[in-house]
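SAMPLE LOG
Freezer: B-3
Tube label: C17
Construct: single chain, 481 aa
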Amino acid sequence: MNTFKDLLNFCSVFILLTLTACAINPVTGKKQIVLMSEAQEVAMGQQADPEIVSFFGLYEDPQLQEFITATGNEMAAISHRPKLAYEFKIVDSPVINAFAVPGGFVYFTRGIMAHFNNEAEFAGVLGHEIGHVTARHSVIQQRNQLFGQLGLLAGVLLVPQLGEFTEPLSQGMQLALLKFGRDAERQSDKLGVDYSSQIGYDATEMASFFETLERQQEDSGSSEVPPFLSTHPSPDERNTTVEKLAMDWQQKSKMTEFKINRDSYLRKIDGLIVGEDPKQGFVENSTFYHPVLKIQFPIPTSWKHQNTPQQFQMAPIEGDAVMILTLAQGATLEDATNALLEKYSLTLVESKKETINGMPAVTMVAEQKQEATTTRVLSSLIQFEGNIFSLMGVSDLSKFGSYEPVFLNTIRNFKELRDSEKLNRKPDSIKIKTIPEQMTLQAAFQNFGMPADRFEELALLNGMQLTDQLSKGMLIKVVGK
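STRUCTURE (predicted):
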C-alpha cells in the first residue's frame, strides 16, 4: 500500500467484512464475528488433520481407538454441534496433551491416555476438547490474531536468521498449538462437565485428573506445566470449579448413578507404550541414537536438543548457532547438494567429496547473504543404506570460526549404529497387575519388582500416593519392557 488512501480503503473493506461476517455461536446463542463459515471451518480441519498426523504419527491400538471413537461419537451426538463429522485419534507422542482443531478433529496423545485412570477422566477431557469445537474457540482465536495483526502494518517483524534453517511448523500444527484465553478454557471445562455427565460419566473424576497433573508439575520441580494445562485457570481454582459444576449437575439431574469404569479402562491400556519410544530416536550420554535409521552422532556439550519426525535440532544455550539433521532430497549426493543450496538460497564457498566412517559424503561450506548479515553453513551430506542424511551446522559469519570445530566434531563422528542393545532397545509399556492382598501402593511396587527410583513416577501414573491403601483384587499400573 503506497498511499494513505490505499490504507483507508483497505480498512474500510475490512470493517465492512467484520460487520457482515457475524454468526450465532452454537453454545452461547449470541452473535459473534468469526470471518469464517462452517464449511470453511470444516475445510480448515480437513487440511490440518493430515499435517498433524504426519507430524506425530498415529498410535496403532485398535481396541483403544475403537473405545475413543465410540465414546466420542456418543458425546458428539448430544453436543451443541451434532451434525459435524467428528474424528477422534490417538497420536504417537509421550507428551501429556489433548487438543482439537476446527471441524470436529480431536486428538489425544498416548501420553495422556497412559495417565488416565478410568473412563470418566477420559470422558471429561474429551468433553472439554469437543467444547473447543462446539464453541468455535479456534475460529475465534484466529479472528483475534487477525485483528491483532492490523497493528503490525507500520512495524517490522524481526526473524532470527537461524530460524530459516529449522523446519517451520505446518499451518495444521500451528492450528493445533493455538492457545486459548482463560474464559474459553473455563467455558470448555463447563462443557466437559455437561457433555460427559449427559452420557452418564462422573465428571468429578475430571477434577481428580487435573490434580494428578498438578502433582506431576510440583514433583518434577519444573516451572513448565503439561501443555493441556498451559493456558488454563490456576489448578486450585479449576479443580474446585469443575468439582462444583459436576456435583451441581448431578444434584439437578434425574440420574442416580454415574459411571467411573476404572477396571475396564485399565485393561484397555494394558501394553500401551509410556514415555519415549526408542524407535523414534533417543539421546543417551550426549549421543543421539536412531535404531531404525541405524545411525548415531554426538551432541555438542551443554547443547539443548529437540527431536521431531521431521528433523533433530541441537543448539547452544546462547542461541547463536544450530545444528540440524534431516533426510536430504535427491537420489544422489550431487542431487542432494544442489537441492540444499537451492532450498536455502545458498552460495557455495567450497565443497569436497570424502568418506566419513566408511560412508560416501559431500562436505561443503556455503553462505546466505541478506542485507547486512551473512550466515555461514557447514553441511555434510552422507549416504547410508538408501538414505542421504543432511547434517548441517549454521551460525552468523562472525561466529562461524568458533563454532566450526564443534560442527566438524559432530559430523566426523556420524557413524553407523552397531550396538545391539541400542538397536534392540524396547520402550516401556504399561502392565496391569492385580493386588494379591491388602497393602500400600509402595508395597505393591516392591512386590512387582519396580525400581525404587521410579516409585514416585509410578504413583503419579496411577493418580495415587505411595501411602494409599490398596485392597485385594484391585488393579494398578506398573511398567515393563
